[in-house]
Amino acid sequence: MRFLQAALLFSIFVTSVFPQELPKGLTQAEREMMRSYTAPVSLFGFTQPPAVPVRTMAEWEELQGIIITWTSQTTILRQIVDYAQDEGKVYIVCSDSNSVKSSLTSGGVPLTNVEFLIASFNSIWVRDYGPWAVYTNDADSLYLVDWIYNRPRPLDDRVPETFASRYNIPLYQTTVSPYDFVATGGNFMTDGHGTGFSSRLIVTENPNKTEAQIDTIVKRFMGIDRYIKMTVLPYDGIHHIDMHMKLLDDETLMVGQYPAGVSDGPQIEANLQYVLSNFKTAFGRDFKVVRIPMPPDGSGRYPSSGGQYRTYTNSVIVNKTVIVPTYELKYDTTALRIYREAMPGYRVVGINCNSIIGQSGAIHCITKEIGVDEPVYIKLYPLAQTSGTGFEAKAVLKTRTGISNAALYYSSSQAGPYIPASFSGMVQDTFYTTFSVSPGTDTVYYYAEAATVSGRSVKKPLVAPEGVLKHAVDPLLPVELVSFTARESEGSVLLSWVTATELNNKGFEIERRADSGIWQVIGYISGSGNSSERREYTFSDNTPLTGKSYYRLKQTDFSGAHSYSTVAEVLLTGEMQFSLEQNYPNPFNPSTVIQFQIPEAGNVSLKVYDVTGRELRTLINEYMQSGTWQASFDGTGLASGVYFYEIKVNSFIQNRKMILLK
């Protein structure tokens, strides 16, 4: 009752003080209110973090639809509905559905994929107050997360609750201490793999929280392991990053660009260099950067001279369509071309936003994505070139009902035809496949497709095969490998390889896997740098696995580029020995795999300890038969640092060190 009374009083106040649409930023009257304003706390949903790990979806993942709030700017909203309902549902928050239907149909927009949510609201800016879609265990159940809105607009703040209640989706709210957290959707973006981006407004607006506490909240509610925070811009009054940057895919940043030295240009460049110098993509590579102009307003002014904050990065991706704000033809044609080149296969459309940009917002600010009920998580790693024509592909594939089949499709021509290479060898939801292309191929085009047990099928990228990924073939690998062999030698496995030439060769990592295991690094041999002479190398695996094992070389040059050798196979039929392998990967974040071998049945204990010897986790505590086994360890919730794992089997005890690096 207290909440309803407060909301009613505030609604009356807003109606009398703000007869026009509320801007994205604070009005002067709202600034006065903020001195004593307390955000509403609802009894609906949960105020504790989810009990299981969650992952915030990326904007380019599959959506069931988007939310908009129908108030002013109906011309823009009508066009958004027209484009977006081709791709999914459009959920319209409104006070009167009949008037919305009339406005849509009179504008020639059919009501083919629209649902109405009758609710009270204060403003159009649903990006900032709308719910965030997260998935449990990467790709299981759909949850919604709601932050405290950083505006004194309690009706807006309640929209996520209304939506979650209507569609029976669990709602988790950061509204109660110690998880009370103020944030806005326009100041957050994620790659879908645990990395989040914001401006440092996120720190300023949570003065009672340390940065570590903020990181913990977004980790537990959003699954964000790495939270990148950038300096606010001097002329962007709202300090939302969607006004000057956007993630287009897992590895591509679109960043607005002013003329040199103009307006927010210097700080944008400094922020971009900060990101590029300190952070890599989820695949350990440099971010790709696409620049797009930040145009002046109709009078030729930039924000530093009092001009409107025109931006093209404030777009929204709705499945296979990208809706971009536009302003003037002489600037728009360049911006739309940049989008189409950076996002091949997508339908890129523009909507004139001159009527709304003066309020410091555009398309992204007035839309919010809702994920699907049964997501398919595809983390497709960049191709690894194993020879002049050979490649290995790797993908993490997850879904609630299970993967029935999956394949990588590749071609030497973007137009196709695309040849399937079935994924197999699943370990911890990670799949592998290999393939070869014809000699002389300069570019490999590829995409992945996974089918679920329930009958769903999803591609990565979503627009494939019209839009695909590509890999430039290196015709001259840094090392010309003449031979690579593996053979048993007095209880060990002796690896031998010969190079004819070496260019910029830093060295070789030796990797091994069991017949049903994953690749693990077991050694390293330095390379010869630059050499035009024949070089011979050997490595002895003195703790080999019994049974069939596979070995390969990962050659790395001094620039960080790498390639893989062919795979050598060894079958050892000798007596099995106790062994505890080095975890892989190492360092790791957040999970790693530990492999061990036991020659006899017994009670197996595998535990993880911190540097003080305090026991943190029991991975295995059961009776097991002889053989080669593995266990996974998830370091979520632990700080970066050194940890130890120890195995005890009958009288055998061994421990090793591993490094968690976030």
Residue fraction in strands: 35-45%
What is the number of E strands? Answer: 41
Structural class: alpha+beta
Q: Unreliable stretches, pLDDT < 50, 5 or more residues?
A: 1-20
Largest sheet: 7 strands, antiparallel
The CATH topology of the largest domain corresponds to L-arginine/glycine Amidinotransferase, Chain A
Tell me the number of structural domains. 4
Distance between the termini: 45 Å
- Silhouette: globular
Radius of gyration, CA atoms, in whole angstroms = 28 Å
The CATH homologous superfamily of the largest domain: L-arginine/glycine Amidinotransferase, Chain A
User: In percent, how helical is the residue content?
Assistant: 10-25%
Determine the mean pLDDT: 90
CATH class of the largest domain: Alpha Beta
Describe what you observe in this structure:
This protein is of the alpha+beta class. A hairpin with a 5-residue loop joins strand 37 (602-609) and strand 38. The chain is globular and about 85 Å long. Residues 1-20 have low confidence and may be disordered.
Lay out the secondary structure.
Layout: H1 2-17, H2 28-34, E1 54-56, E2 63-69, H3 74-84, E3 89-94, H4 97-106, E4 114-118, H5 126-129, E5 132-136, E6 142-146, H6 154-157, H7 159-167, E7 171-173, E8 189-190, E9 195-199, H8 201-204, H9 211-222, E10 226-230, E11 245-249, E12 252-257, H10 265-278, E13 288-293, E14 316-318, E15 321-326, H11 329-342, E16 347-352, E17 368-371, E18 376-380, E19 384-385, E20 390-399, E21 403-411, E22 419-422, E23 424-427, E24 430-436, E25 443-452, E26 457-460, E27 469-472, E28 479-489, E29 492-514, E30 520-531, E31 535-541, E32 547-557, E33 562-564, E34 568-572, E35 579-580, E36 591-598, E37 602-609, E38 615-624, E39 627-634, E40 641-649, E41 652-660
Parallel strand pairs: 2-3, 3-4, 6-7, 9-10, 12-13, 15-16
Antiparallel strand pairs: 1-5, 2-17, 5-6, 8-9, 11-12, 14-15, 18-20, 19-20, 20-24, 21-22, 21-25, 23-24, 25-26, 25-27, 28-29, 29-30, 29-31, 29-32, 32-33, 32-34, 35-36, 36-39, 37-38, 37-40, 40-41
